[in-house]
Design a protein that fits this description.
single chain; 111 residues; alpha+beta; three-stranded antiparallel β-sheet; 3 strands; 23% helix
């Protein structure tokens, strides 16, 4: 994002919040076409997969409720951005190699 866009967002928008990754969320002070536009300033590279699901819903007007960054259920996983092209990307070959290290025996039904 260029410097002019960042300045105009900070001048004409109210800061709504930030997520755990440092992305900042803004909403326009004036409504345009009956809705206030919503913006994000990414922390680092502008990668949409870095937006957590709760903030994604707010950005796309699915919910007007602000996300609660502190409330997480035990079953929820930590949000990860798209890892394609990085050393952490999923590789079927690596998965097979890791699981061959263990002496895995599949279940055999009794005859």
């Amino acid at each position: 994002m260029d410097i002019i866009s960042k300045i105009s967002i900070k001048l004409f928008c109210n800061k709504i919040g930030a997520d755990e990754f440092g992305n900042q969320y803004f909403e326009a002070k004036k409504a345009r076409n009956s809705k206030k536009r919503r913006y994000i300033i990414y922390n680092g590279i502008a990668e949409p997969s870095k937006v957590p699901a709760s903030w994604h819903g707010w950005l796309h007007y699915t919910s007007d409720d602000l996300p609660d960054n502190l409330h997480h259920h035990l079953w929820q996983k930590i949000h990860l951005p798209n890892l394609t092209g990085t050393k952490f990307a999923y590789s079927p070959l690596q998965y097979k190699l890791e699981h061959k290290k263990h002496n895995y025996l599949p279940w055999q039904p009794n005859k």
